[in-house]
Amino acid sequence: MTTTRVLYLIACAAGPAQFVDEGVRLAQAAGWDVCLVLTPSAARRWEPRMTELEQMTGHVVRSRYKMPWESDGLPKVDAMLMAPMSSTTLNKWGAGIADTLAIGLVSEAVHMGVPVVAMPYFNQAQGAQPAVAVSMAALRAQGVTVLDGPEGYESHPPEQGVPKAFPWGRALSSVERILGTRT
Length: 183
Fold this sequence. Notes:
Blueprint: E1 5-11, H1 20-29, E2 32-38, H2 40-46, H3 50-57, E3 79-85, H4 87-94, H5 101-109, E4 116-120, H6 124-127, H7 130-142, E5 145-146, H8 168-182
Parallel strand pairs: 1-2, 1-3, 3-4, 4-5
């Protein structure tokens, strides 16, 4: 019997979210059953093509907390990848503000032993805000692997980002590496 590992790919409305299907394809090629969770803003960007994402993953794409009478519809997770992560999500998550399903899932998961990796995508001006370093330190202290700098995503100058070049493969390799060290 073959077991499939389940990855929750959680995307914010940062530029590379428009190419989240590339991240899904790469994860599936690596043997993951991918469940996609989008922040509400990212979901609005994908709204005209949401069916495409659901067909690609075989799961409903979640972007909001479910109502008590609704079923979850997502399988048990083995790892979570928040990519791309916006500075807004980073700072809310670092401060413990779980006002979206995306942040709520990772906030709980890291304290339940689920490996959580986050790769940001924002410009150098946003990254210079003092809250960014504080939030990254807070997440790392909780056990989140934050991939920024040379080992992850290096912030770009304002208005010079290349969303299509987002290093999905690097993020997925980090998830694999972390899972490998836990077994």
